[in-house]
Amino acid sequence: MNVFTKIIDNGVNTEALIQAREALTQAPEAAQFTWRASCDWVNGTHCRSAVEGFFGLGEEQAHHKSFTFDADHPEVFAAEDQGATPVEYVLVGLASCLTAGVASVAQYRNIQLNSVRAIIEGDMDIQGILGVDPDVRNGYEGIRVRFEIDADASKEDIEALVAQSQKRSAVFDIITNPTAISVEVH
Amino acid sequence: MKRTTAIVIGAGQAGLAASHCLARRGIDHVILERGEVANSWRHERWDSLRLLTPNWQCRLPGKQYAGPDPEGFMPVSGLVRFLDEYAATCQAPIHCGVTVSGVSATTDGYRLQTSAGPWACRSLIIATGPCNRALVPACASGLPNTVHSLTAHQYRNPGQLPEGGVLVVGAAASGIQIADELQRSGRQVYLSTGEHVRMPRRYRGRDILWWMDRIGLLDETWRDVDDITRARRLPSSQLIGTEQGNTLDLNALTGSGVELLGRLSGVRDGEALFSGSLNNVCKLADLKAGRLLRAVDQWLAECGDNAQYPPPEDLPPTVTPARARLSLPLDTGEIRTVLWACGYHPDFSWLDLPVLDRKGMMIHDGGVTPLPGLYVLGLPFLRRRKSSFIYGASNDAEDICTHLAGYLAGTGSNRAAARCA
Q1: pLDDT, tens only, B102-126
Q2: What is the ipTM of this complex?
Q3: Which one of A56, A127, B285, B288 has the largest count of C-beta atoms within 10 Å of its C-beta?
Q4: In chain B, which among 337-396 make CB contacts under 8 A with chain A?
């Protein structure tokens, strides 16, 4: 007989997430969020982006503080390497989203995590961005994620955590499906 | 105005089963049917279709499959015959060719506007089926007009389609079966695959549905599962009923030359675009199918005679293309047809009653709606996992008619609701 006597704690408040899901099912308009970032050019290919406020639950919201992100390109691109490249930020976004998803799903499924590490790689043929070959796309040709997970669970259960975190991941969806983008100049 | 105690709308398996249960309780009623008995089966399915449930599961209150092959899968014509025979034993009149165009609540029941004039009743069972409308994604409007487009609802046989490649969108039971048939007809088929439910036809010497019945999975009720909304939305299992009893999964389709693609995510500039999530949806389905087989093994280990059956097996993983295509040109003539097999929705738009949610789906608790005396039957996982199977309609109809009889007698739990309304 299985009785959960052990307290599972991955630091995720699933109770609150489940309550939020129920509340938003009743009031889908509150589920409409808008995320924002601003980006200032510094010099060369060095830019500094900031993330502060967002809209959700029917009103303006704010992070506890403003977060900033320096982006640049490495020296092999004849740049000053003042920050990660934008395409690396994309990998960071995907890895963070999937890893957070693993933690949340594990908490919900009563699985204690001991350590989780995602190693992510994206392959890119830069003939695309350099305009050398019009048949080569600018973006990644493929992205690989490798998870190293130590958890009190079977191999199948851990695989299921990882599969479920992709199923519910916003960034996974953003990368795997097309998104319409509008850009204006003021 | 014609008046009776109860009206059943729809003369498919669910409506006919309900009629049988009402008659046994001595409740006066009629069945109103827009077309003929088993209308959807007769007119809205493709020619080669066989049931994906074994013949022994063709069972309704007072009638059971009695043919020579209980483990076989009957063609749709066999089911139509079965339902025709069943309808002939109905004590209540079946008014065929009567379309109900509106239902409103009255002080003591319901008033129906129909093509044969108004009807009034105290209690109403809606059994119009789950497959009235084939779903087509919004991006379908972006298809080049040189591409032929049809739904699984409209599909009858390969001869209906022009020669040339076919993009089948959707990999539930309809999608995989039609993809297989079209590939065999000599056309190159591309199958766009989102989340799906993989299932081997047979396991450890028995049909998988026999096991699911045996270990109690198909009898799980809507109150047993964690998330009934999700369970009701689940695509139909990748099963096919054939004379050979073979499995038709994505690996089998790949083996016959079908090319797997991710979920269709858009149509842009004459190209169909596919999600990069193919590996994940296949992995999810493999894991879930594995859990089903382990549940069978565990049941056998605990309460069955393990040695009586062949040993446990693992399903081979679904093989996906090393690099699945993310786009397919639709304007080069290679793809001549897009076939939409994206699922079906019931159509309750004719119902002027406050029992529909914002998506037009019926609000109900195991078939009992918030309106006193109003019931729905024949929807997926209505009361049990097997609700969408023929024999599932049996149990559901019994339960609903018991509730309905209680309501008429003034003892049902809906009585309180009736007073509040």
Answers
A1: 999 999 999 999 999 999 999 999 9
A2: 0.84
A3: B285
A4: 358
